[in-house]
Amino acid sequence: VLPPRDRVALENGILTQRLDSLLPRLMAETDIDMWLVLSREYAEDPIYFTLVPQPSHAARRTTLLAFHRLPDGRVERLAVNRYPLGEPYTAAWSGGDLDEQWQALGKLIAERNPRRIGINVSRDWPVADGLSKALHQRLLEVLPEGFESRLVSAEDLVVRWTEIRIPAEQEIYPQIVALARSVISEAFSSRVITPGVTTTEDVAWYIRDRYEGLGLPIWFMPDVNFQRAGQD
Hints:
Largest sheet: 6 strands, mixed
Distance between the termini: 39 Å
Number of helices: 6
Radius of gyration: 22 Å
Order of helices and strands: HEEEEHEHEHHH
């Protein structure tokens, strides 16, 4: 497992490839001209961390990302943020106060004049429902007159962005699977299990502790079931 510092170059390289090759195709196929991902520190959109360069532990104050599809098929990657994100984003505005920041976003939208503006609201998919009510209201306040009707759900775009793995990611997946299998193998070995003593809860906590020791966040608490012929 790479230490956190050494992961940055790999993760950011994959992010740039996804933004260069995958995002333009998905925006075209879902017919979205501009995609807005709006987040606040401590209340980030679930999709936020899949879009920003590492190391990134939170949105800085209010971070407004805008992806604009150009006539040639490329996608502008714009950050309207007090603290510039750097590559692979272009700072459309930085510094100033919060009201100026939102006005800058409104100006950016007016200048690009997108026909369909995707926002992260969804009835069915939590990962695509990251736009809070307060940020939605602020967006409505700075939209050019008549642009409210251009807002559409970015649900299909978000789901497809989340589910698709590009070739560079697929090359790494065998290593990920091997790592998972190695931890499972340890957990079900005599290194961990003493017959008649070790409980299923002990094994579950071993798996959790092992991943945390490797610096890898887990999705949910591991579940280990005991099964034996003749027992329900």
